[in-house]
Design brief:
two-stranded antiparallel sheet, globular, six-stranded parallel sheet, 41% helix, alpha/beta, 286 residues, 12 helices
């Protein structure tokens, strides 16, 4: 654990840990992915707390607090690496008295698996998770979704916003036009380019930060959720992650949700995804 990870924890995140420890209920940590903020989990927080959890929604290091602030200051996202972000979340989780459930989406799903592989999760749910070392498929739609970043090597150390058309293809292809525009205006923010370059090169770099300890017996139960129509993390990628995880002694499951795209955690069908996660946790989380 680096000192820099501890220094990035905000007063709000420290307060969330204190409240979780005082609540006496099982904690759940939500981890967002690229192009979103912690606010994307607001409805999930309400639902999970109604079901008996206490929820934490940490940001990535130095995340702006609002979409408006994020779009006004995109430079705040630049340069963050997978390892830096994983260490940030580990430091927060180690401030909890009880191992949490961890739920993550997209690159948050990759981070979820990294943290579970470090033995930090009571159980975990990775939703349309970004690939890690050992995950080999490279579907055309995934390459197209990543091209706004990977198409320019200089983006590695930049923050990159998506145009509406890019967001429509990568996130909101499975919803109607009006909803896609609403999601873009409500949730979309710039994202660090570095994690995408790290994931893209993971199978060429033995020292990559985009790697998961899939064999740790303390990983806990894991569910991978895949959206059938996801262009950014298609079934081939999610299923390859599942196959990498299958040898773990913990419960490992995968489910594909029909007709759902990459925006499945924030679009109008979000509760189907949340209920799928809650059903798994009810069965497997001790």
């Amino acid at each position: 654990m680096s000192d820099s990870a501890a220094r990035t924890i905000t007063e709000h995140e420290l307060e969330q840990c204190k409240q979780a420890n005082a609540a006496g209920r099982p904690p759940v940590v939500f981890i967002h992915g690229l192009w979103l903020l912690p606010s994307s989990w607001e409805r999930w927080v309400t639902l999970f707390e109604q079901r008996g959890y206490v929820a934490l929604t940490p940001g990535w290091p130095d995340d702006p607090e609002t979409v408006e602030e994020a779009n006004a200051h995109p430079e705040a996202f630049a340069g963050k690496s997978i390892g830096q972000v994983a260490d940030h979340f580990e430091e927060i989780i180690r401030g909890l008295d009880t191992k949490p459930v961890i739920v993550g989406h997209s690159f948050g799903g990759l981070l979820t698996q990294i943290l579970a592989g470090r033995g930090l999760a009571a159980a975990s749910v990775a939703i349309d998770p970004a690939p890690f070392r050992g995950v080999l498929p490279l579907p055309i739609s995934a390459l197209k979704s990543a091209f706004p970043v990977l198409g320019n090597p200089a983006n590695r150390n930049r923050a990159v916003p998506l145009t509406y058309d890019q967001f429509r293809f990568g996130f909101a292809n499975a919803v109607e036009e009006d909803e896609a525009k609403y999601l873009y205006e409500t949730y979309a923010v710039p994202a660090a380019g570095k994690p995408l370059f790290q994931a893209a090169a993971a199978n060429l770099n033995p020292w990559t930060e985009a790697k998961v300890d899939t064999s740790n017996p303390d990983r806990g139960p894991l569910l991978i959720i895949s959206g059938e129509k996801d262009n950014t993390v298609p079934w081939a990628v999610a299923n390859a992650s599942y196959k990498q995880q299958q040898d773990n002694p913990g419960v490992t499951e995968i489910v594909e949700l029909e007709g759902r795209g990459h925006a499945l955690t924030i679009d109008s069908g979000w509760q189907e995804v949340a209920d799928t996660a809650l059903d798994f946790l009810k069965r497997t989380a001790s």
